[in-house]
Amino acid sequence: MEMFAVLLLLAFSCLAALLNCAYVKYGRLYALGSRFPGPPALPLIGNALIFLGIESDEFVRRCAGLARDYGNRIRFWLGPQLNILLHDWRDVEVLLNSNKLTVKSDQYRVLSCWMHDGILLSRGRKYQQRRKLVLPTFHFKMLEEFLPCFQEHTAILMAQIRAKCANGKPFEFLPLLGLCMLDTICDTAMGVQIHSQRNADCEYVKALRSLTEILHLRMFDIKYYFRFIFRWTSKAAEAKRALRIMEDFAEKVILQRRKELMHAPLAQQSLPEEDQLIGMKRKRNFLDILLNSSIDGKPLSNTDIREEVNVFMFAGHDTLSSALMFFFYCIFTNKDCERKCYEEICSAFGSDGNVIEMKRERLNQLHYVELCIKETLRMYPPAPLIGRKAVEEVTINENIIPAGANIGFSPYIFGRKSEVYAEPNTFKPSRFDMRTRANSTEPQPCILTSFSAGPRSCVGQKYAMLQLKVVIVNVLLNFQMEYVGDVMQEPMLSSEVTLGTKEPLMFIARARGTEIVR
């Protein structure tokens, strides 16, 4: 009997200790989180039902509805997880530029199966090391070397569009853009050509599509969000198979390239680091830079390299094809903007459509095209959500954010706010023209958040801008297109890993100087 009493007392003591730990951990989180407006939360599950089983097109509308109903600072709970959405430009500015808010939010954890500790998800000293490591890839000299690769794969895209011109039927542009971007990314990241534009059913492409779809489900469908639930679904096994295919492919490429570099001529190895690879038969790529890099005097392991290559593939594939799709939608539904872009491109490259050699200096002359790109990214940002995690208590404009909270904002919702952008639903590239903005009545400041900002800004934004311009130059020099949908009705958006549309955007294309055949 005495032993039972002792055990009972011990059990109550353990329970009290656990409850105390929970109170310490969640008490202040709940107290501070409750200061923010938001929808009523249910015990245990919080506001999870808001996002339960929703379609991809519904996520954007739900977030916009929360912003409309509860203002610029909103809280919602996913179980015990506190999430705060900010859409006041002053708050967003602090969020993106704070050195205390550099850790990615919990929503990004679903990507860890693929990215692991790559630059997208790493934190602290490791993030600083990785960022310093990959920055040389986006030096202007390296970007100059990428241009022939951009043009090579874009030339195949031009042939694909010409085939669509022949029958005069409406076609979906996004799949063509996606495969072109995938070919380009594989080439610049790993130095290999997978020829997905000619063979969209190759094993690597199918694995990438499968994994991307599953990651979308995990990020935006609460049924798959929590790992302890996801691991028991059929999607977990499917993701595992896709990952194995992609990682085996990357590992094979890394081993082969490492072997080639080991047998490179000694004279080549004695060249200055910045020019060390120029004399090789193969053109430089992201993988070569990583294989020739070290951290704290130690070369990177194959695992380290694979993580960064995976990030490069993820960040540069769907995002660029999404940006291009919406750019062409905006341009071909705003004919005056199309005309100005075409005239500027002709001024820089000529009008015969035969862009034999891309030069960065010429691409830099495309000022109006760049304004149109920025305006497209404002209206249709590829990343539907950007998030950080407060690892310590922080204050944002007198609002205390408790440690453990996820803080984020939707670039799409932010880009449609009239207090930041006048006439936010109007495609108006001039709003980003700094030469005329000083005398503008546009609200200040005019912030482009698509590439994020501050200490975790996108390291590849110069790469992205050049790649976008190369495709745009080729398409506009060679083709005119007509959007098949209702130009007066904005397409219904869907929020996957990148922003898309519920229904495909369809176009009819014709070669410049010919008529559209219907």
TrEMBL record:
GO molecular function: heme binding; iron ion binding; monooxygenase activity; oxidoreductase activity, acting on paired donors, with incorporation or reduction of molecular oxygen
Binding-site positions, heme: 458
Entry cofactors: heme
Listed SUPFAM superfamilies: Cytochrome P450
Signal peptide: 1-16
Pfam family, one: p450
Protein name: Cytochrome P450 4d1
Species name: Ceratitis capitata
Gene name of this polypeptide: CP4D1
